[in-house]
Amino acid sequence: MGEAADVVVIGGGIAGMSVAYHLVLGGAAATVVDRHHEGRATDAGAGILSPETTRVIGEGWRPLALASGAHYRRLVADLQAEGETDLGYGRTGLLAVAFADWDVETYEQLAARSVSGSVVEISPAEAAARFPALAPVTRALWNPDAARVDGRRFTAALRRSAVRRGLREVDAAAERVVLDGRRAVAVQAGGTTVACGAVVVSGGAWTPALVDPLGDGWPIVSPPLGCYVVPWPGGRAVVGATREPEAGFAPVPTVDGVRMVLNELARVAPGLVGATLVEVRVGLRPACRDGLPVLGRLPGLDNVYVATGYGADGLLVSPWCGQLVAREVLGGPEPGVDPFRAERFL
Fold first, then answer.
1. Element (H, E) at 189
2. Distance in angstroms (rounded) separating the CA atoms of residues 336 and 117
3. Closest CA to 271 of 136, 133, 135
4. CA atoms of 258 and 121, how far apart (whole Å)
5. At 44, is the secondary structure helix, strand, or coil?
6. How far apart are CA 232 and CA 220, in angstroms?
7. Is the Cβ–Cβ distance between 127 and 137 less than 8 Å?
8. Which of 109, 166, 250, 294 could be cross-linked to 309 through a Cys-Cys bond (beta carbons 3.0 to 4.6 Å apart)?
């Protein structure tokens, strides 16, 4: 059985669906090939959107994060305007806090990068008033523009919008990108061959295999060192996270990982130690050795592109990066992806 598309996007998480959404918005006939892998990072992320207080240090990252935050707000407004109400998005604000002498230096480094515009330093008493379960702190930054997003619900909203514009889907894992010389001509998946003019690989952690009790008003708490706490409606909170680079592809929780997160919760927000443990999520994050994403056309191929490697910030940067890659697919080289091209590893 065969199909055809202008562009095939491999991967239906927030990274791939952001590319697909912007492609169909630009008039392309796009097909998403995706089998919903257990352990997908989109489904497990806590959902912090605070580009103004990003902790990633690297040339090009802060402008990317800020552009991503601005694009998120526009995208939320656009989706709401077309009737999407279940976005899993809420503006909550974020507290970045220091607890003792040992983390003040890291806090001050963060403050030096972040205090501008709406981000301000507030007193420990103000921080405690905003998050009553908080342990005593020595310093606190307040970002009123920070938000939270449920990656599953936001991705679903992008999908619904894209499908209304003609997006087609193949419910199967991509098995092979078919090449004719330097050009991709088709993608094979689950007995279906989709002929195409270009391919975008956004398979998250699977990409290398293809290309070789809280109130609703509490803010996010994000210490410069240690675990974050993200409050959600219905008296829930997400706490995390461990990072285990050698975990492989087994999305299973470990006793040591759960112990570490719960110990951190007791340190950061002792007012929550009596909460009920409802769920442990495990997600596989795609990350590059230099901490930056990989975007744009792959070297040596004319029409194969990637949008991946977002690490812990995939929920934040995927919509903006998806638009950048979609622009390149539709219109040629996109300067915005230049700092993130795969050529830097060659």
1. strand 183-189
2. 24
3. 133
4. 32
5. helix
6. 9
7. yes
8. 294
Q: Do residues 195 and 2 make contact, with C-beta atoms less than 8 angstroms apart?
A: yes
* Phi/psi at 232 (5° precision): -130, 160
- Match 């219109």 to its residue by tokens: 331
Tens of pLDDT, residue by residue, the chain (346 residues): 578 999 999 999 999 999 999 999 999 999 999 988 777 777 777 888 998 888 776 677 888 888 999 999 999 999 999 999 999 999 999 999 999 888 888 889 888 888 677 899 999 999 999 999 999 999 999 999 999 999 999 999 999 999 999 999 999 988 888 888 889 999 999 889 999 999 999 887 767 777 763 444 788 887 776 778 888 876 788 887 776 666 666 677 777 778 888 888 888 888 887 788 888 887 666 677 778 888 999 888 899 999 988 877 888 889 999 999 999 999 988 889 998 998 887 7
For residue 187, how many other CB atoms are within 10 A of its CB? 26
The answer to whether 94 and 50 are in contact (CB under 8 A) is: yes
Give the DSSP letter of residue 275: S
Q: Could you give the CA distance from residue 11 to residue 177 in angstroms, rounded to a whole number?
A: 13
Residues in the chain: 346
Rounded Cα distance between 120 and 139, Å, is: 11
Tokens standing for residue 172? 């199967």
Q: Are 43 and 66 in contact (CB under 8 A)?
A: no
Structural contact between residues 19 and 322, judged by C-beta atoms closer than 8 angstroms: yes
**pTM of the complete model:** 0.75
Question: In this structure, are residues 181 and 171 in contact, taking their beta carbons and an 8 Å threshold?
Answer: no
**Alpha helices, H only, the chain:** 14-25, 41-44, 61-81, 101-114, 124-130, 151-164, 207-210, 255-268, 314-331
* 3-class SS of residue 276: coil
Q: Which residue has the tokens 């059985």?
A: 1
Q: Which residues contact 217 (CB under 8 A, 6 or more apart)?
A: 92
Residue 310, strand partner residues: 287
Q: How far apart are CA 63 and CA 108, in angstroms?
A: 20
Q: How far apart are the first and last CA of the chain?
A: 38
